[in-house]
Amino acid sequence: QVQLVESGGGLVQAGGSLRLSCAASGRTFSSYGMGWFRQAPGKVREFVAAISWSGTTRYADSVKGRFTISRDNAKNTLYLQMDSLRSEDTAVYFCVKDSSLTNWGLGTQVTVSS
Fold it and tell me: I need a labelling partner for 2 at 20 to 30 A (CA). Which of 25, 29, 39, 102 fits?
């Protein structure tokens, strides 16, 4: 089981930016894809962005053009750069290892004030 630890959440005004990080344990980080999901109060967890082991990215329509997912394999770290934040981006953000969706971090809270 890979340990995933998110950080970088906080309170930001609408239009602002945050960068989330997800640190992964182990030595095989570069060999698997990673993703970000989010869950707002009273809502189901939803897909935000994903990046393959080779760097191919995809995004939910709601964040396309505003969020950027990236990875640093030398640091075993996944990132989510969030720009032009909106109140509807308020949620707990989780990173997850590969498409099995069985290995999650504990999440980091992002609150966007309008």
Answer: 39
